[in-house]
Amino acid sequence: MNILIAGVNKSYGDFVALDNINVSLPTGQLTALLGPSGGGKSTLLRIIAGLESADSGSVEIEGIDATKLPPQKRNVGFVFQHYAVFKHMTVAKNVAFGLEIRKRPKAEVKTKVAELLELVHLSQFAHRLPSQLSGGQRQRLALARALAVEPNVLLLDEPFGALDAKVRKELRDWLRRLHDEVHVTTVFVTHDQEEALEVADEIVVINEGRIEQVGTPDQLYDEPANDFVMGFLGEVTRLGPFRLRPHDIELSTTPGAPGVLSGVIERSLRVGFEVRLAVDVEGQGEPALVVLSRTHARALDLEVGTRVWLRPTAGATSVPVLEVASA
Ligand SMILES: Nc1ncnc2c1ncn2[C@@H]1O[C@H](COP(=O)(O)OP(=O)(O)OP(=O)(O)O)[C@@H](O)[C@H]1O
C-alpha cells in the first residue's frame, strides 16, 4: 500500500508545472518533497489532496483510485504554512471539531481530544484560545486537528515555514518523534534541505516540474544522481575536474603525489568550530572552498598566502564538473 502517482502532468496556460511525474510514496513513511521555489512541490501535494486536478495521469491512495475523488472523500489531513485554526474556539474545541461534525459520541470525542493534546504536548493549554498560543504551539494544534479524524495520509505544506529558525528546529524534531509514534503516511513539502535530511525517511527532489531523484537522505547525500541534487543537498565546491563537498577535500602543507592540486590560501574565515578557506588553485577559474576544524587549521599553521596541496579524501562523493548546465 502506498500513494501511487502515475504519469501526472499539470500546466497553467503554457507553463508546465508538473511534467510526467511517476512516484510511489510508501505507507507509514515520512516523505519530503524537496526542491527550489516554483519547482512544483505544492502543486503535486495539492493534486494528492484533491485540491487541484491533474491534466492527465492518476493518483492512487492506499489501493483506491483517488484521481476523481473530491478532497473530503480521500481521507487525507492537511496542514499549511499559515495555520488555519478557528480563532473563536478553544484549543480543545478546535481538535474536537472534525469529530463533532462526524457525530461521534461525546465520550469518544473527549477521550480522543485528550489523547491528541497529549500527543502534541498541548494538554495544559486545552482551554486557551489560539491567539494565546505561540506560533509553534499553533502549528502543533493544526497537526492535532488534522490527525483527529484519523486520516490515512497527512499532507503538510511547509508547515513550519512561517516560524523562526529555533522553533522550526524544535518542531521538526517533534514531528519526527510524533511520526515514530503514530506512523501515519506523511508527505511534507519543504525547500529546506536540512529539514528534509533530518526528518524524512525518503526524499523526492523536484525541480522545474520534474523529479530529479528519489531516495533516503543518505542515498541522496552520498550518491546524488546529478549536479543539481548534489548542489541542492549541501555546499559544493570545485577541485580540478570534480565537484565535491568542501569537507571532502584533504589539505596538506607539504607537496603531495602527482595529481594533487596545488594552490594558495586567498581567504580564511572562522565560523564557530570550523575554518573555511578559499584556495586559489592553479589552472582553475574559481577558488576551491575547503572546510576544516579549527584545531586542524591551527595545527597546520594556516594563513592567507600559505601554499597548500589539495585532493579529494578517500571515499569522497564527487560528480564531474559540467561546463554547460545540463538541460
Ligand atoms: N493557480 C496557478 N496559476 C498559475 N500558475 C501557477 C498556479 N499555481 C502554481 N503556479 C505556478 O506553478 C509553478 C509551481 O508552483 P508550486 O507552488 O507547485 O511550486 P513549489 O515548488 O511548491 O514552490 P514554493 O516552494 O515557492 O511554494 C510556479 O511557477 C507557480 O507560479
Automatic annotation (TrEMBL):
GO-annotated molecular function: ABC-type quaternary ammonium compound transporting activity; ABC-type sulfate transporter activity; ATP binding; ATP hydrolysis activity
Domain ABC transporter, chain residue ranges per copy: 3-233
One GO cellular component, as annotated: ATP-binding cassette (ABC) transporter complex
EC number(s) recorded for this UniProt protein: 7.6.2.9
Top class in the EC scheme: translocase
Keywords, sorted A to Z: ATP-binding, Cell membrane, Membrane, Nucleotide-binding, Sulfate transport, Translocase, Transport
Full protein name: ABC-type quaternary amine transporter
Organism: Nocardioides caeni
